Amino acid sequence: MRRSIACALATLSLAACSHGTLEPPYHRPALPVPPTFPTEQPYLQQAPNATPATWQTVFTGPKLQRLITLALAQNRDLRVAVEQVEASRAQFHGQRAALFPTVNATASALYEREYINLPAQFGARDFRVTEYQLGLGTTSYQVDLFGRIRSLTRAAFLQYVATREGERNVEITVAASVASDWLTMAADESLLKVSQETLATGEQSLQLTQSRLNNGVGTGLDVAQAQTIVQQARADIGRYETQVAQDLDALQLAVGAPIPADLRPTDLDDPNANLPVVPGALQSSVLLRRPDVLQAEDQLRAANANIGAARAAFFPSISLTGSGGTASASLANLFAPQTMIWQFAPTITLPIFTGGLNRANLAYAKAEDHVAVDQYEKSIQTAFREVSDALAVQGRIDERISATQGLVAAAADSLRLSTALYERGEDTYLDVLNAQRTLFVAQESLITLQLLAKTNIVTLYQVLGGGFA
């Protein structure tokens, strides 16, 4: 008995002193992209460096902040991500439990009647047996000499951490989606106002051409041409009213709840649509803080840990099974010293022939590790392309807006002069018609560019991993 106990203690001590695993050393892959983002035209010219920020420092408008706060509480995609984190954490704790022995308390009672000697017709006698047992036991506790269980536990933990980064990525996406949908609705409200203003101008022109026709100085062609502007404006109003309604539906889906009327945008001139200036001097290493990149690296590290577990399967494994307690034929003597019982059964298993299973599992773990490396590098390359695209837009957007603002001003002057010449009879209505159409198209283009400038800042917030300052 003493030798068995000493053997058990030695085995447990050896397990306690063994902290190593068979995982290969982890080295983060080198960045598969240039060290800096493009700086030549048309990319954004570099200015102060960017530092991490939060959505509150990017979307400072009270309306947007209230909407994003509501979305972070109600958005169903984010709720799913949170539950996935909880599920992954539960899996980690379940795997971690294998590092510890399981101890169970048992209690039993046995009542038995047996016959001895011959059957009853030959004078057989019977007797009854009663036995009570109470004890503690552990079943199949595996001593983790070569770190197999520790590697599996580490892999489960890294998968849990990866799901937490996934949750953060969803949070950033939700905030960006709410801001983009809100800005899109604001732009469509602006376009609706332009269409309504165009309708009012067209109706005035129609009245003018009709009056000139009634006075014998105009033509039916002028009236018909004026009507085309009116009807086109009416059609545009219907189109933009539909788009505004659809924008509201999209915004409510992103938020996950009905949108209060006071949080809806009026137009792109709404103060809540003001967003910060984008910084420059961005190093590509900034991509390493993106949640999706961090998630890919955590999955890579988990795959590396799985290699250690697969390697450990080639070595012997030791399992311990034991129990101890008391047994007695009567409850009164159940705790007497002479009723103590114990059992200890260590088992060592050495894999000799597994039909290639262990080699196949190791090859699979290494292949999964190579896949994880490629996915990690692809996530960085994708992030680099997304940031570069956004910087390309941001680099010339102010110039494009300025040019379009000049076009709107010139078109407005052209309409004013053409209308004055037509009223004096010095020009045809065709020039007025062309000027009205040119102005409307220029106004649409300006609003579209202003929306692009604002949503591109939202895009930069997202692709830079959740903000800039």
Helix and strand composition category: alpha+beta
For the biggest sheet, the summary is: 4 strands, antiparallel
Measured as a percent range, the helix fraction is 55-70%
How many separate domains make up the residues? 1
Number of strands: 4
Q: What percentage of the residues does DSSP assign to strands (E)?
A: 5-15%
Summed up, the helix count is 9
Major beta sheet, strand line-up: 1-2-3-4
User: Which fold does the CATH topology refer to?
Assistant: Outer membrane efflux proteins (OEP)
Secondary-structure arrangement, i.e. CATH architecture: Up-down Bundle
Give the overall shape, derived from the CA principal axes.
elongated
Distance N terminus to C terminus? 70 Å
At the fourth level of CATH, the homologous superfamily is: Outer membrane efflux proteins (OEP)
Q: Which blocks of ≥5 consecutive residues have pLDDT under 50?
A: 1-19
